Structures are given as C-alpha cells and as structure tokens.
Amino acid sequence: MKIAFLGLGHMGLPMAKNLAAAGHEVTGFDVMPAAVAAAHDGGLTTAESGTDAATGADVVITMFQTGAQVLDAYRGSDGTAGLLGVAASGALFIDCSTIAVDEARAAHALAEAAGHRSLDAPVSGGVVGAENATLAFMVGGTDEDFEAARPLLEAMGRRAVHCGGAGLGQAAKVCNNMILAVSQIAVAEAFVLGERLGLSHQALFDVASNASGQCWALTTNCPVPGPVPTSPANRDYQPGFAGALMNKDLGLAEHAISATGVEARMGMLAREIYAQYAAGDGAGQDFSGIINTIRAESA
C-alpha cells in the first residue's frame, strides 16, 4: 500500500518506520528539516513537501501538533495545494494527532466532501510505544474504514479500539488523558506524603501496586526512581510524555468540559496544575516530574 506519513517527530518517525517494516511503500515528510534528515538517515523514503509525499497515495497519515495544522494541511493554505487534492481517489486519511473533537469532525467533513475516507485515530503509549509498535489507537469513523485501516494500525500498535463515529476517537483520548493527569498527580502526592511519614518508596510501591491504589501512573510511570526501572524518574524525567503535551491535552479537555457543561473539578484542577508545570522547566520534562513541584511546594 502506498502511504504518505506526515509528521516525523518523536512519535511519527518510529510509526512510519514500523509501517515500512511491515512491507508498505511509505514516503515521509516533516516541516522540520532535521526531522526529514533523521528519517532519511534511518532508511525512510522522504519527500520535499507534504503534497509531494501525498500525491497518488492510497493512505495519508498525519501526526501533527494542532487541529489547525491538520485542517490547513487537508485543504491547503497560502495558495498551496492541500493533501485532499493530490491523494489517490478514495484515499483513506488517518489523523493520529491529538486535537479537539470539533476539529476532528471538521477534518472528516473535508475529507468526505473531497471524495475520500477518514478516521481520527489518536494514540496512547508514548515514544516507547511508538518505537516498539505497542501503541493503543482510539478510532473514530465508519466500521468499514476502521476495518480497512486495521492492518496498518496493527503494524504500529498492539490495540485499536473503534470508539464510534467521527470525532469519537478524539473524545476517548481526551477522557483517557484527563484520567491519566489526575492519577499521576495523586500518585505523586502519595509518594511525597509517604516520604514525610518515613515510608520508603519501595514499601509504598509494593503495597499500592498490589492494592486498590494500583494504576498505570504507578506501575508503569512511577514518579520516583527505583521501583519501576523503566520509568522516566530513572533517567532524570526525560520524556516519555512531556509536560507541555499533557498541558496541551488538558487544554482540549477544558474545551470539551466547557462545551458540554460537565462538572469536572478534578480535571480542571489537573489542568491548572499542569499549566503551571508546563510554564517552567516541566515543559520539556516527563509529566511524572510533577512530583518535584509537589515536593517544592510542600511546607
């Protein structure tokens, strides 16, 4: 299958490589020359522009930072052709970016109006998941398009869940990451409290990881060095999943909360906490590094 993969950052590049390793004809592009060079050096075929990569493509996969970037790329901007105008007739567009639900639905509408098929398919699993092809995909779109994309998603990840119609993959992502943010803060607070009470990190981990406090933020992304050797805490909080990205996703949650009128006090508090974290050094650190902020602010 001829695939254009646009967005070759820390997540996109290994995803594109996994598709190529599965036998697909993948052409990549990124607006950052260094990312294109890294992809080329890693053996991936690259193009000089996004439209060059997408010309005649059967599948166009995007992994961008914002919904505006996705929409601009689809329809074109500043007089340049859009991806929708150059892909093969009836191409399948898969957007793996994390964007707002209404932006995802707008992207679906644009693709369908141009005679193409469309899925929103944000991911969970971070850089490690992208590198190891163990990502989880949350997918919105029709049953038929989901089934058509399944072999590609399975080449990049371990699990793909069809969440419903257009935009509902993004809805699942925003809900999941709000849970993650709240639980990561709670785990960090518990470890700082345990420190003050004289409890060792290992003892608290051994109890909570086998009791009702068990969660991904503890057993995979443990915010203290030692109990989980692969967690970012053991490499000075190098991401992982950066605080800036968590703050961005919580901004999407805030937008959804406001639009729906949901009473989500914990989600909004997590948004406030991570906005402050991302305004400083936390922007480039793993979001589990919030534990250092909690320590610093504890009396």
- State mean pLDDT (0 to 100 scale): 96
Strands side by side in the biggest sheet: 3-2-1-4-5-6
In percent, how helical is the residue content? 40-55%
Hey, roughly how much beta strand do the residues contain? 5-15%
- Number of helical elements: 13
Q: Radius of gyration in whole Å, from Cα? A: 20 Å
The backbone outline, from C-alpha atoms, is globular
Largest sheet: 6 strands, parallel
Element order: H for helix, E for strand:
EHEHEHEHEHEEHEHEHHHHHH
Low-confidence stretches: none
**Extended strand count:** 9
First CA to last CA: what distance?
A: 59 Å
Structural class: alpha/beta
Can you walk through the features of this model?
This protein has 299 residues and is an alpha/beta fold. It has 13 helices and 9 strands. The strands form 2 sheets. It has a 6-stranded parallel beta sheet with strand order 3-2-1-4-5-6, with helices on both faces. Helix 1 runs parallel beside helix 6, helix 8 (168-196) crosses helix 12 (265-278) and helix 11 (243-260) packs antiparallel against helix 12 (265-278).
Brief summary:
With 299 residues, this protein is an alpha/beta fold.
